[in-house]
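ok so i was messing around last nite and threw this chain in just to see what happens. nothing serious, just curious
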Amino acid sequence: MRSISVAGIRTDAQTFSEAVNTFLSWSDNAEKRYISTATAYTLMMADQDEQVRAALETADMVTADGMPIVWMQRLLGSRHAERVYGPDLVLAVCRCTSERGGRHFFYGGREGVSERLVGALRTRFPDLEVVGAHGPVGDVSADVPDEATVQLLNAAKPDIIWVGLGSPKQDIWMYTYRPHLQASLLVGVGAAFDFLSGVKAQAPMWMQRSGLEWLFRLSQEPGRLWKRYMIYNLRFVLRVTSDLVAHGRQAP
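result:
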């Protein structure tokens, strides 16, 4: 991994396979870590919210979940940087651990989504070891973890806890709960629960690769997502353009 500041936040530039290999090695390690998968919206929230900034700065890995971050990483020197997208990461890791071993817990999602996700993953990977699923999740405190939640997750003894609360809620949750959980790895994967369970449609691959996934998602949920994409994406463009000018580079 190579650390690159994008919009004032440290991100980790890497190929997808490098991220998966690092992930697997960390899941086997006794050291406690957490991974944030960041979009432009995540970085802009960190720019205005100190709790979100602290969560990202403390994370052991901040992946480029969105293509605009990948483009910035490449522009700033990491030519081989790739998108490390939550749904793809879940599938790749579940595929590997279904063969080599690894205990999974899926935490988050709306009512019934985590259970549907587990069913879909077990259909793909019959040997996948899932030790629990729980959702939905209420408000997240940045200071005090819920003791019942801590007991639930520790009693299941997972190696990996997948956190599907949406960003930046999941980042704050991992920052708050990481010291209290025994699992080796917590991973925030945003809408992956909805996509992989079939609750929501994913953008076509060509839209994902060209950075237009936001447009597809906006067309699916305009009432919920218009502010995220129409306001925060614009803020991201203005912020990184300003940063590039300050560093004597031209925007792509």
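not much to say yet. The chain has a mean pLDDT of 93.
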